[in-house]
Design goal:
324 residues; 13 helices; 3 strands; 71% helix; globular
Amino acid sequence: MLVMLQDLRDSNSSKFQVSEFILMGFPGIHSWQHWLSLPLALLYLLALSANILILIIIYQEATLHQPMYHFLGILAVVDMGLTTTIMPKILAILWFSAKAISLPECFVQMYVIHCFVGMESGIFVCMAIDRYVAICRPLHYPSIITESFVVKSTVFMALRNSLSTTLVPVLAAQRHYCSQNQIEHCLCSNLGVTSLSCDDRTINSIYQLVLAWTLMGSDLGVIVLSYALILHSVLKLNSAEAASKALSTCTSHLILILFFYTVIIVISITHAAAMTVPLVPVLLNVLHNVIPPALNPMVYALKNKELRQGFYKVLKLNIKDNNA
């Protein structure tokens, strides 16, 4: 990807008067934005340590070698990849004022962010389907949600996101950046970068919105349908305890899912309305890429009894867990 974007840049060298971009950080608070580095660094460390711990627990515990936990492991890898794509550069900006980033590196970061965000959305879909089958079709669960299903769905999501997002950096690399190179952001967002171009960027904006609403919109539609069917099934249960347990799990999942998609919608609307990028959308964009990875292990995993027991084993804690 880096070589391809470098070739695109070289083949259009007459159009590129700018040799690098300057990531200014958080707009409006440049003088004291370094104070944000501490909470962001802590969130990053939490995301890495929590997700690594989840992977260790799933790997070491033979009882967790099941499709549901495979999805949790894949989500952990995606979360670590997403945060590591952006956080080292953001911390370098806040700590060392290392704001410069070459055009090819910026376009590669843009591509990888889109891939990982799309992949996380895809894993949410797979996990929603997993919960739907487990709650609404429990007798068919072993024959539907198999290891083969996990592999095929993961490969499909990876191919879907890696291929569909290729045009995002390619189209951005074809724009004409003739004078301005300061980006009022901490990362190379597609519309934030192309807003600096001197030529028409309509195609970039259209493709960004089409990509967001087709991929994310279809994923969200499947998730909403799955949880609606789960709710319908749960409300028909005669056991109040079983209904409460199922709703508790789904509610925890939905909180993070709603945060994930709400931020994407807010960011899309902000850019679509051609607004000057204020602090809140930029901050939301950054937090959107670090808060879910930090919280997912706790919400998805540590509420699960088997994973909690694995956690106690790994840390050699002699704690008896009677919670379901």
